[in-house]
User: Fold this.
Amino acid sequence: MAETTLDRDPNCLFCKVVAGEIPSNVVREDEALIVFRDINPRAPTHVLAVPRRHIPSAHELTDADGPLLATLFTAMRAVADEAGLGRGYRIVTNVGAAAGQSVDHLHFHLLGGRQMSWPPG
Ligand code: 5GP
Ligand code: ZN
Assistant:
């Protein structure tokens, strides 16, 4: 079986967060995902929405992941609503080192609570 289809990578930081082996500040979770606060927030609200299953990045997603993605985006909407981000917020996922991905487990950054600039650096 290819590594990308394994549920867990023993060397992966976010697999350890998902397993509760590394503490995190969880704001939302269900059987498929966890949303927790970024340890180095870049905005007043900065959380990471992460599938429990180990997927290295958005580049490895397939059609079969459609329901998982819908669940992730629904969870992020709920977090945005709870945080009062009605004026707007940003969802971003970095793919690969050149884009700034530093943890190779798919995660969506949800940033809000301040004016965002464009384009990202
Ligand atoms: P990337 O650079 O891969 O797009 O995003 C990784 C994010 O994970 C960074 O914003 C970084 O601050 C965050 N991060 C790294 N290690 C930890 C950790 O142990 N706990 C939490 N909550 N966030 C982390
Ligand atoms: Zn992982």
User: Anything to note?
Assistant: The first helix runs from residue 13 to 18. Residues 13, 22, 24, 36-40, 48, 94, 100-103 surround guanosine-5'-monophosphate (ligand 1) (CB under 6 Å). Strands lie at 26-29, 33-37, 45-51, 89-92, 108-112.
